[in-house]
Amino acid sequence: MTSTTQPDKESGTDIAFRLPRSEDGARMLELVKASPPLEPNTCYAYLLLCHHFRETCVVAEQEGELRGFVVGYRPPKEPDTVFVWQIAVSSKARGQGLGKRLLEQLLAAQPEGSVRYLTSTVTPDNEPSARLFRSYAEKLGVPCEESKLFGAEAFGKDQHHEEEHLFRIGPLPGSGRTPHTPL
Ligand SMILES: CC(C)(COP(=O)(O)OP(=O)(O)OC[C@H]1O[C@@H](n2cnc3c(N)ncnc32)[C@H](O)[C@@H]1OP(=O)(O)O)[C@@H](O)C(=O)NCCC(=O)NCCS
Asked: Is pTM, for the whole model, over 0.90?
């Protein structure tokens, strides 16, 4: 993926989708800070995602501004899966399909047929996020399974944190199992 642009009907200007560069890390952190209930990670974490996991991340830019991004990775024991760590759309661009387009671009950036599942975790109170993943699965015409991944207790007694539910979208159309021999 070099860069692909799509027209934005609302503003009449194009939105460009591309893989991130290291200078996007600090901008991602700023967008996350402005996007509760997303939890900000350190700037270093976003830099590492943009550097080591660049192929499983996409940014959306409009008139030089970061409108949204998705960051993820392939879990080492599930190489046919792309796990979405975080996805955020700036408040003024929400509800216009950008979240779904970021997921589309993320999958389009993967080698053909290499992704069987798209996964993410969502806290029970995050309805926009749950809607995004369910609606994307509906669009693809594939199941979206939901299960508990981490209970609240996993985050420790001192930190109030809701449980995290795993959303698993797939099997995706046209996907083949990637041969994998566990050690
Ligand atoms: C979650 C988020 C990325 C969705 O982005 P978005 O660009 O607004 O999403 P889309 O416009 O593509 O909408 C996708 C679906 O979610 C639904 N949706 C979006 N916002 C919603 C809301 N506030 N309440 C209910 N449904 C909502 C849309 O109606 C659409 O469903 P449909 O296709 O059935 O109509 C955005 O709300 C956001 O950045 N939230 C804060 C950060 C966050 O919580 N990230 C997810 C956790 S990793």
From this structure: yes
- Reported as a single tens digit per residue, the pLDDT across 7-25 is 887 777 789 999 999 999 9
User: Best mutation site among 73, 94, 123 for ligand 1, i.e. most ligand atoms within 8 A of its Cβ?
Assistant: 94
Q: Where are the domains of the chain?
A: 3-169
- Candidates 134, 166, 162, 180; CA nearest to 38 is 162
- Pocket mutation for ligand 1, best pick of 59, 101, 118, 131 (most atoms within 8 Å of C-beta): 131
CB 52 within 8 A of CB 16: no
**CATH code reported for the domain at 3-169:** 3.40.630.30
For the segment 82-123, what is each residue's pLDDT rounded down to a tens digit?
A: 999 999 999 999 999 999 999 999 999 999 999 999 999 999
Is 24 within 8 Å of 69 (Cβ atoms)? yes
CB-ligand 1 contact for 94 (6 Å cutoff): yes
